Amino acid sequence: MPSLLLDRFSSRKKPGRILLALLAIALLSLSRTLAQDAVGVEPGYRPVAEALARLVEHERKTKGIPAISIALVAEGRIVWSQGFGLADPEKGTPATADTVFRVGSVSKLFTDLALMQLVEKGLADLDAPVSRYLPTFKPENPTDKPITLRQLMSHRSGLTREPRVGHYFDPSCPSLSATVASLNGSKLVYPPEARTKYSNAAIAVVGQVVATLRNQDFESLVKATVLEPMGLTRSDFKLTPELVPSLARAQMWTYDGRTLDAPTFGLGTSSAGNLYSTANDMGRFLAVLLNDARGQGGPIVTADTFRSMRQVQFSPPETSSGFGLGFAVSNFEGTQRIGHGGAVYGFATEVGALPYAGLGVAVMASKDCENAVVKRISDDALRLLLATRLGKPLPDLTLTEVVDRDLGRAAERLGEGLVFRRGSLWKRPNTRTGGTWDELRSSRERLYFDGAFRVDFANRHEPERKEAHTTDRSMPPAPCPKEFEGLIGEYGWDHNVLYVYERDGKLWTLIEWFFDYPIQHVEGDRFRFGDSGLYDGEQVVFTRDQGGRAIEVSVGDVVFRRRAIGGEDGKTFRITPIRPVDEVRVEAQAATPPVEARSFRRSDLVDLTTLDATIKLDIRYASGNNFLGQPLYTSARAFLQKPAAEALARAHKTLSVEGLGLLIHDAYRPWYVTKMFWEATPPASRGFVANPEKGSRHNRGCAVDLTLFDLKTGEPISMVGGYDEFSDRSNPDYPGGTARQRWYRDRLRRAMEDEGFEVFDIEWWHFDFQDWTKYPILNSAFEKLEK
């Protein structure tokens, strides 16, 4: 729609005919009772629903989202709502518009409404010091400007993002009062009102003010004063027994390809992010807002109060984007858009409304941090609704697909920070400010940013197609500064790991799984985030042991303790076998490999050293220097099927031009050894060993374990993790370590992939040849092979 027409929706312009027509429709809707249940799609909105259903299902499937629910609001009521996918993939439970999701920071809007009710009653003053209501609230404020409720609600207080107790990572579920009490002594990151700094801690304080002034626990109070009067019968700040059966099973994911069930603990900052709700309830919430905040039993707050909440705070009157009192305010195609996004362990939510058009949408997803996706769906929904309202043709919706392998790898070779990993093309965060890895996808032979963190169809990214080069054009990065070595590692909890690593001679952090930021050195072991991002301006302070190795790091007020990782000390990783190796050996050698009822190529195993004498061997299973601590082979030899062996020799020759060579740890492996691994390894670690019932690609002579060595010195190249290390560091896309280690790991990968090998998804050293399915499982000891 032309922006000139939408400009007429603005509250600061004189109403035109279109606005008057829309206002008339809105006034008509005021006389109607708010719908309590969505009943299919209303006839006038069927084309919109059909277009959105195609979009939602496409996004759900191609982005790997288990469930998405959506509700559209127009004419004062829900005109369509629906669930897509599975609320519980394991049980096959379909998602509906009444599936329960965690809505994260959308919770803040309800807390702010509860506070504004107190303002209307004269019980609270937005501009009075918060200490008037919470006398014990005493963060360290180096200025004479007190913290106020207005500042807290608009994220201008200068408080840290997270409190010391009850923070986003804290699984102990402390009370709201204990969470707020932990802010005493916290130093403000910025002076009050100096700049916007998003803070969950700030809205926790607002929630505690509400609870204190009402002398009631926060959750029950807001349910009685805000949720129930709005008719939100399936929403609560507590996960009640009534909601549990309908709660979607949410999924976490990582850049290195892992997925895990989302944790379910409640947040200590409950008033900032602990609401549970449904698409239908969020639709009812939007209908109330679009009815000037009037619920079924009367106003939640007055129309004037609601309008004041939509005004951008601490900015000139003409400012159209920023934070109001709780609401995120922006300009949407010429008219005001209000709403909020939410992201909390495994869930992503977006609610948005156009007050001057009387339109709204709520979108909820059960996959972690897919906020750009739900925001894209909500924006497209609003565009479709606007077009329908004005009798315009519905706009086309862009659908993208993953980048094909050839283009992805060609694009990666161009530099420009592009990386092709796990079937997707990504753009690295820039070296100055950091950020997220943004996925590029294709539509009509053009590339666009379209992923979990960024959607941009206005600007295409078009790397030209080039043939992949057989040699890498860059040089390895300089060694990591010595002073950083003791700081690099993993910190925090299993459900949320903080990675500290080196890049470009600087320390970086990967926090909350997806947010990559460089940290600026201040002095000693004290660093600081830059002035953008989730933790802008906050201090990062390491504490070392007597040996110089960091044992913990604090980010703002949150302390992350170092995680123990096997193999970090440089020693060979070891497990404690669950059965004696000698006992397992006898049993395995007497066993029979699985029978495969299909034809295979004739086996033609070749000794790798006969193809190129400069290929080095370090066959760990012929010695005790392996994860079981005992010899498993009777000789130190390495064989591959002839096509795989020749391909490996070509990769070695290519690397030799760069002064590098291939060091082989293992190649063909008799089946009985695979069975030994399986029987001796604890079940929790069996992801790193093959199941003998299916056989291993090593058994077929088409897999090789290897690393790089320096041709001049003969020494192995240092990698991020060690060979056969049963840890996340073994992942070929593991984000930690030093830039130099990651460069060599990636160089090995490119050299092998150029010759038809594929890296194993949890072991950077393991490569499978492309024709592995064409060869049988073998069980011959090395001595029985042809010389």
Task: Please tell me about this protein's structure.
Helices cover 24% and strands 23% of the residues. The protein is of the alpha+beta class. The strands form 8 sheets. The protein has an 8-stranded antiparallel beta sheet with strand order 3-2-1-14-13-12-11-10, sandwiched between helices. An 8-stranded antiparallel beta sheet has the order 21-22-23-24-25-26-27-28, with no helix packed on it. Strands 15, 16, 17, 18, 19 and 20 form a 6-stranded antiparallel beta sheet that branches. β18 and β19 (446-450) form a beta hairpin.
**What's the shape?**
globular
Using only CA atoms, what is the Rg?
30 Å
The helix content, as a percent range, equals 10-25%
What percentage of the residues does DSSP assign to strands (E)?
Answer: 15-25%
Mean pLDDT: 91
Distance between the termini: 76 Å
Main-sheet strand order equals 3-2-1-14-13-12-11-10
Quaternary state reads single chain
**Which class best fits the helix and strand makeup?**
alpha+beta
Which stretches are low in confidence, meaning pLDDT under 50 for 5 or more residues running?
Answer: 1-39, 465-473
